[in-house]
């Protein structure tokens, strides 16, 4: 179950285009991949082996919109790469860890993802990620 690396850091933003312009123009970073997943527009920006995942909600009632309304823009979650999300969830469940997701769901880049509740992770929303681009060497 042990994570093998930090996969990405999710950052909630109000305006994806402005956020991309900051990271590209001010920090000299490049967007590697963009996609829409449900009510989220997402842009991935690699920094070494870790991606920044900029997330803009396209719905006023979406999870990211609610997060921004409550806490403002900023870090939403930290995602860890694991071999198998289902196995990781089983191991965490057996330890009594509170989960947001009881089973994996579809994530960006064709991955499987699941979230651990912040109350079990010292206030940090924690995402587990497997499959997709990591298996393709990207």
Give a description of the structure.
There is one protein chain. The chain is an alpha+beta fold and 138 residues long. The chain is 22% helix and 38% strand. It has a single domain (5-134), classed as 2,3-Dihydroxybiphenyl 1,2-Dioxygenase, domain 1 (Roll), CATH 3.10.180. The chain contains 3 helices and 8 strands, in the order E-H-E-E-E-H-E-H-E-E-E. Mean pLDDT is 94; it is low at 134-138.
Domain module count: 1
- Mean pLDDT comes to 94
Distance between the terminal alpha carbons, to the nearest Å? 22 Å
- Residue ranges: pLDDT <50 for 5 or more in a row? 134-138
Q: What letter string, H or E per element, gives the SSE order?
A: EHEEEHEHEEE
Could you tell me the CATH topology label.
Answer: 2,3-Dihydroxybiphenyl 1,2-Dioxygenase, domain 1
Largest sheet composition:
8 strands, mixed
Major beta sheet, strand line-up: 2-3-4-1-5-8-7-6
Name the CATH homologous superfamily. Answer: 2,3-Dihydroxybiphenyl 1,2-Dioxygenase, domain 1
Number of helical elements: 3
Shape: globular
Give the oligomeric state of the chains in this entry, treating copies of one chain as homo and distinct chains as hetero.
single chain
| CATH structural class | Alpha Beta
Work out the number of β strands: 8
Structural class call reads: alpha+beta
Integer-rounded radius of gyration: 15 Å
Query: Helical residue percent?
Result: 10-25%
């Amino acid at each position: 179950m042990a994570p093998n690396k930090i996969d990405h850091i999710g950052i909630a933003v109000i305006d994806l285009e402005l956020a991309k312009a900051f990271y590209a123009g001010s920090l000299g970073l490049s967007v590697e991949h963009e996609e829409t997943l449900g009510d989220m527009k997402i842009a991935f920006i690699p920094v070494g082996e870790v991606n920044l995942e900029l997330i803009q909600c396209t719905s006023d009632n979406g999870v990211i919109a609610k997060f921004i309304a409550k806490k403002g823009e900023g870090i939403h979650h930290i995602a860890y790469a694991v071999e198998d999300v289902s196995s990781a969830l089983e191991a965490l469940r057996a330890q009594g860890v509170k989960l947001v997701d009881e089973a994996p769901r579809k994530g960006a880049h064709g991955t499987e993802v699941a979230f651990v509740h912040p109350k079990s992770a010292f206030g940090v929303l924690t995402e587990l990620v497997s499959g997709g681009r990591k298996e393709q060497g990207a």
